[in-house]
Amino acid sequence: MELKKAMSEPRCVWSHSQMTVFFGYVLLCWVLATPGTAYSLENCTIVNTENVTLDCRNRKLGAIPADIPQRTTSLDISTNLIWKIEKGDLKNKSMLIKLRMDSNQISHVDDETFSDLKALQMLDLSNNKLTSISDLMFLGLNTLSKLLINDNLITTITLQSFQNFHNLKYVDLTNNHLGQLSSMKPILQLPQLNNLFIGENKFTYFLSSEISNKSIALRNLDISDNPMTFFNITDNVFPDLQYLGLARCGTKDMEWNVPDRSFLSNVTSLSLTDVRLSLEMMSTMLQSFTTSLAKIVIYNLLDEHAWPLINIACQIPTLETLQLQNISTVSEKLLQSCTHLIDLNLEYSNLTELHEFSFRPMKQIRRLILRSNQFSAVPNATRNLTTLQILDLRNNSIQSLCCLDFAKLTRLKELYLNNNQITDIKHCFFQDLRALEYLDLDSNTIQDVGDTFKEGFQKLKLLNLNKNQLTSIQPDSFKGLKSLKVLYLSYNQILYMQPGAFQGLTRLTDLHVGNNWLVSEYPLTYSVFKGLKSLQTLDISQNNIYYSTDKEVPSIFSTLTSLKYLYFDTQGPEGEHIHHIPTHFLKGLRSLVMFSAERLFLNSLSKDTFLYTPHLEVLNISNNDFRSLSPELFQAIPMLKELHVQHARLLSLDFLILANLTQLTYLNVKLNEFTEINETVIHSVPALNYLDMQDNLLSCDCMNAWFIQWLKNDTSTQVVYAHDLVCRFKEYKKPTKLMDFDIHTCSEDFGFFYFISTTSVVLLTLLGSLTYYFLRWQVVYAYYLFLAYLHDTKHRKRPAPNQYDAFVSYNSQDEPWVLEELLPELEENQGWRLCLHHRDFQPGKPIVENITDAIYGSRKTICVITRRYLESEWCSREIQVASFRLFDEQKDVLILVFLEEIPDQQLSLYHRMRKMLKKRTYLSWPRAGEHTETFWLKLRMALETRDNDDEENLLIGPRQR
Ligand SMILES: *[C@@H]1O[C@H](CO)[C@@H](O)[C@H](O)[C@H]1NC(C)=O
Ligand SMILES: *[C@@H]1O[C@H](CO)[C@@H](O)[C@H](O)[C@H]1NC(C)=O
Ligand SMILES: *[C@@H]1O[C@H](CO)[C@@H](O)[C@H](O)[C@H]1NC(C)=O
Ligand SMILES: *[C@@H]1O[C@H](CO)[C@@H](O)[C@H](O)[C@H]1NC(C)=O
């Protein structure tokens, strides 16, 4: 029955204008040759259409997709199952600049695979299974500047492998199995190389003479995590080196030998984390950097090494930054020599307290990081650091503050107190912080802000109070924050915000009050948001705001004339849904550009909802319960560019036809319930370039034929995952791929699209109509005669082999009889080979040609005649071609089977048929009655007659005229 559905469009009904159009189509197809390449890719999404950027991540791909456009500039195929790259895989991708293939299973790369990538700058092959880099592997990558091959299994790099990489600046070989330092030679000799990462390999020594005797332009070198026993620099090969990473590098008895202090004289940054050398060797090592070192990172210092090493390090006059993660105690003397430090980091150290004078020597300290420790109060040591600009105390256990905690920190700009247990804040805590711009109190247990922010804080730009326990916002709470731009109040328990809550915040641009307990019982009114004249973003998602349908509320946002982005997702009392947005909800928001109203379980939106927001460009109304949307809704927002209506139970997209969304470029209608999408809908959104319509209930129906054709040929709209779209036949629940649905079984007028605009067709139509009107039959006969002639000349030399015993011509509505009665009897019982259009016609070939071929390729043509068959006069074109064959080849090929009795007078309407019947014999199914065996026997005899048999033998049947 699958077939029946596919054929439900009466296939044979061609009006005469369609016929003329069809001639035009054939002509134009011939003229136009090939259509453009389709835009929707099988295994990738085009995320940027200008600089063609492809995202093919995470699709379980086993190979590089074959349909990557030639003009692609950026391609990401990471996180797939590719295990080898073959030579043709990246052919002609000469515009590719960035190629990511990390996190695959690649163990083999053909030689010269990348040779067409003449513009490639970045290649990421990290996290694969490569074992070696051979001479020809990277051949041709002359423009490459960044190469990532970390996290592979590489043991060898051959000598010639990095020839001609004139621009290569960055190579990451971290975590491989390299052990021979000499294998680095081809890389280190690259003229532009700045960054080389060879950590986590198996190098046991580092000997500059083995790599090079002349200077190398390297700036950053990381050799961390190698089991070094020997580090020896004998020449000034790294005059430009700025960073040297030695973390976890070396064994207890590693020898450090840099005889000349000028050799590493430009190194400014050094990582010595977990370097476990003897104290003497560590000291020697530090002595090699005394001229320029500005930053040292030493995590996990051994207790006994701490003071001596920090003492040496801090005596380097240029040292500014010291990072000492995981240090067990900070005594009074530990940092005594660090007088010029600007930046000190003591994070993740489990510190519970600090000596009061720990930081006293640091007269220039600007940044102090004490995060992720165990402080239960702000350490006294931080007071009076008058130069401090940034103080980070996040992730501690601070429970309360006191008025002296930040005394004299008059230059402090950023204070991080997030992730503590502060329950209470007062104005005096922060009174000296006159320069404060950024205050982060996220994730504490503050219940009330009281008077804290009513004055002072002249320069505060951002205040984060997310994830606290605030229950309400009183009037004028933030009155003093004249410069505040961003205020976070999300994830609290705010039940209501009083009128005037945000009074004074005249510069505020972003207000976040999402994820609170705002309820409809304390309605939001315009006076809550009064005074927010600069507000651009308002997030009140995830609250409990509920509007019943019978009540219109006063508009809330009428004062927010600058608001551009409004988030109102997920509302309603717990377990219930909002279902309704008041008609005048958006009144006043004349600058609104984006509105998000997801997950409200709305049943409808009033058609006047957007009357107030004429500049709306992005609308997200996904996860609602619409079923249908009114086109009028959209007529007020003609600038709409992006529309998200995912998962909204839409039964059709017809609302787009009258919505007049001429600017719409992005449409997401994933997970809805529409079964078809037709030409008119697509034409109504002419600017569309992105369409996501996965997971709908498309039917495998000729109604979708035009759409399928469009999917394959359109060059301006990307339909994401187009090749994975499925459709269903009504009777068969099992979905099949939409693209595989054979639209050739549908009428051919989808081709209309291609040439409707061409005047030649108009002319042809005119001409054809006239000719048709006046010379109907002559034209038709001439046409078929012409076809027959063509066919004849084509096949004269090589007579078409009789591929089939019979071609069966029938109207689609008679298909059940053909499939259930005729086919089993003739094919299974009698063993004939039949040609049926839905099954055996070659897709892609014009129908008329298919018919001609079928008739000429079959010994006989069986016409299954009913009134419906006759009514569609073009249906009898099979009869016509067949009778031409009779005329042309002097062969009788026609067998007529009547499925119903057709009285004489009715038949007389079809004078051609009648004429034929006067001469011919036919079989009648109704007459056969119970005795179908006789009927089948006669049909067998008719099929058995050979071409050279006497014509009389063909004349069989119950009734002779
Ligand atoms: C897309 O991926 C599938 C499955 O990996 C594969 O069979 C198909 O050939 C790919 N298509 C193209 C165009 O590469
Ligand atoms: C550097 O010079 C030494 C001694 O002359 C030599 O043994 C070594 O091979 C040279 N290294 C390179 C990389 O040319
Ligand atoms: C559709 O929009 C265009 C411009 O966006 C406008 O010119 C035209 O009048 C509108 N048509 C209707 C039917 O509203
Ligand atoms: C497309 O759908 C609309 C609305 O259902 C209908 O009016 C129109 O005739 C359809 N167009 C085609 C080409 O089927």
Automatic annotation (TrEMBL):
Entry GO CC: membrane
Please report the record's description of how this protein sits within the membrane.
Answer: Single-pass type I membrane protein
Q: Which residues form the TIR domain?
A: 802-943
Q: Which domain of life does this protein belong to?
A: Eukaryota
Q: Where in the cell is it found?
A: Membrane
The UniProt transmembrane annotation reads: 752-775
Q: Which GO terms describe its biological process?
A: inflammatory response; innate immune response
Keywords assigned: Glycoprotein, Immunity, Inflammatory response, Innate immunity, Leucine-rich repeat, Membrane, Receptor, Repeat, Signal, Transmembrane, Transmembrane helix
Q: Which InterPro entries match?
A: Leu-rich_rpt, Leu-rich_rpt_typical-subtyp, LRR_5, LRR_dom_sf, TIR_dom, Toll_tir_struct_dom_sf
Matching Pfam families, A to Z? Answer: LRR_5, LRR_8, TIR
Q: Which family does it belong to?
A: Belongs to the Toll-like receptor family.
* Name recorded for this polypeptide: TIR domain-containing protein
